[in-house]
Amino acid sequence: MKKESTARRLLRIPVLLLITLVYISPFYILTTISFKNPADRSSYWHFPDVPTLENFKEAIAGAGIMGALGRTAIITVCVVVLGVAISALAAYPLARRESRFNKGVQAFVLGIMMVPPLSILVSLYSIIVGMGGINKLWAVILVIITYQLPQGIFLYTNFIRSIPVALDEAATIDGCGPFKTFFLIILPQLKPVTASVAILAGINCWNDYQFTRYILQASRMNTVTLSISQFFSQTYSNLYAASAAALLAILPVIICFIILQKYFIQGMIDSAVK
């Protein structure tokens, strides 16, 4: 058994290295292209001997990537904060009260998660036009929050179920109502799942193209994905500037994930259906 265990560990190392290379390779190629001169026709795998920052200058000046980063950050922060708050508050009664109504709500939430966003885009666009939300950040925030809520409620519900009900009962004996119990007893224990919900919602919001494409139609309102898409058209393409813009766009996401990865992994494990 010990030999078999050792063999498995030795086999696991090259597999993990291969998986790591598969994930790192696109980021490495993106980095090399970002620092290449457009006149350099060498392989994308070859890092330039003389790196240039012209592509970053083009991304900042030509596509306004810094302004797009600011607008995307505003949208993402609002979506994450509001989404986390609403999801946690909605999940608490669903997790603690086993009624037919709550089971129906949970089934409805799970069903909404299966609906492809593009299938509701036409009707959603008509509603946003009627509300006067075209080229308005609040319209994008409202739409993305609505689409992200089912996922957040699902994760919070399963996580709260793993918290012993005895804590709620003890708080009730001490005179705490439902809201006080939630904010003083349950909420402090939701840090891991909150990190998971925040990262998933934040990444989906940061990378969103389909909703922002239809709602933010003016170029002055571009988000990062819309700014990067400006470098590609039927008559024009600039892969080098687009790569530089994409590199600037993914750095905040990578930094946030590195900071919150411990809580993210723990939250995903504890939020699994048991």
Description of the molecule:
The protein has helices at 2-34, 54-62, 65-96, 100-113, 121-130, 137-161, 165-173, 178-186, 191-206, 210-215, 224-229, 239-270. Helix 2 (54-62) packs across helix 12 (239-270). The protein contains 12 helices and no strands. The chain is globular, with a radius of gyration of 23 Å. It is 73% helix and 0% strand. It has 274 residues and is mostly helical. The mean pLDDT is 86. The protein has a single domain, classed as Orthogonal Bundle (MetI-like fold).
Detail the topology: elements first, then pairings.
Blueprint: H1 2-34, H2 54-62, H3 65-96, H4 100-113, H5 121-130, H6 137-161, H7 165-173, H8 178-186, H9 191-206, H10 210-215, H11 224-229, H12 239-270
Oligomer: single chain
SS field, number of helical segments? 12
Cα-to-Cα separation, first versus last residue: 31 Å
Q: Going by CATH, what is the homologous superfamily?
A: MetI-like
CATH class: Mainly Alpha
Note the run of SSEs as H and E.
HHHHHHHHHHHH
Number of strands: 0
Radius of gyration: 23 Å
The CATH topology is given as MetI-like fold
What about the largest sheet? none
The low-confidence parts are none
Which structural category fits the helices and strands? mainly alpha
User: What overall form do the CA principal axes indicate?
Assistant: globular
Tell me the strand percentage band: under 5%
